[in-house]
Amino acid sequence: MIVNSISKFGKYCMFMCQVLRTPDKWKVFFKQLLFEISNLGVDSIPLVVIISIFIGAVIAIQMTINIVSPLIPSYSTGLATREILLLEFSSTMMCLILAGKVGSSIASEIGTMRVTEQIDAMDIMGINSANFIVLPKMVGFVLFVPVLCILSMFVGLWGGWLVAEFTDMITVENYVYGIQSFFNEWYVWYGIIKTVVFAFIISTVAAFYGYYVKGGSLEVGKASTDAVVVSSILILLADVILTKLLLQ
C-alpha cells in the first residue's frame, strides 16, 4: 500500500509537470478559463448559499440552546456563530462539499474524454492534452473559490440573523453585537488561504484520477469516487497543517 501510494504520488507530480506549462494559445486558454469559472464556480453558488444559510441558522440555534449559564453573555451566540463560520465551515466544510460536486464533475468529464479516446486524439496531434484540459479548470476554480468562501461567510451569518429575527431565542441586537465583538480580520484571510489550497487539491486530484482512467464507464465512476475520497482526506490533512502554520 505504501509503495503504491508513493508510486501514485510520483505519477501525480509528473502529471502536474505536464499541466503547469505555458499554454500554446493564450486566446484559447482564456476562452476556456471563462467557461470553467462559470461551470465550476458560478454554478456552485446556489449550493453554497443554501447550505450556508441552514448551517448558520443551525449553529445559532444550537449555541443559544447550549448557552444556559447566566455567567455567559447572551451575545456569545453571535460571536460563536461568526468564529465557527470563519474558521472552519466556510473554508474546510464547504470545500469538502465542493469536492463531491466539483471533484466528481471534473473526474467524470476527463475520464469520459479518456475512454472515448478524445485525449489520445489530442496527443496524436501533438497537443499537450493535460495542459489544454486541466489547466483552465484548475486556474478557474482556484480563482473563483475565494468568492464562494466570502459568500458562504456572509450568507451563514445572515442565516443566524434570520433565527434572531424570526424567533425569540435571541434578540437581533445581541446577535449583531456578538458578530461585531472581538473581530479578528486575519480569520477571514485565513479562511480564504485555506480555500485556495483546497481548491488546488480538489481540481488537480480529480483531474489526475480522470486523466488516467483505463477501461469503460464503470472505471470512470470508480475514478470519480476515488477522486472525491482522496481529495477529502487530503483536504483534512492540509487543514491540520495550515491551521498549525497560520494560527500558531
* End-to-end gap: 33 Å
Radius of gyration: 21 Å
**What's the total count of β strands?**
0
> What series of H and E elements makes up the topology?
HHHHHHHHH
* Fraction of residues in β-strands: under 5%
- The SS-based structural class is mainly alpha
Mean pLDDT: 91
Question: Count of helical segments?
Answer: 9
Major beta-sheet overview: none
Stretches where pLDDT falls below 50 for ≥5 residues? none
Fraction of residues in H or I helices: over 70%
Shape: elongated
Describe this structure in words.
- The protein is an all-alpha fold and 248 residues long.
- Helix content is 83%, strand content 0%.
- It has nine helices and no strands.
- The chain has helices at 2-19, 26-41, 45-66, 76-115, 118-124, 129-166, 172-180, 185-211, 217-246.
- The protein is elongated, with a radius of gyration of 21 Å.
- The model has no long low-confidence stretch (mean pLDDT 91).
Short description:
By secondary structure, the chain is mostly helical.
From the structure above, extract its key features.
248 residues, mainly alpha
Secondary-structure map with pairings?
Blueprint: H1 2-19, H2 26-41, H3 45-66, H4 76-115, H5 118-124, H6 129-166, H7 172-180, H8 185-211, H9 217-246
Helix pairs in contact: 1-6, 2-6, 3-4, 3-6, 4-6, 4-7, 4-8, 4-9, 6-7, 6-8, 8-9
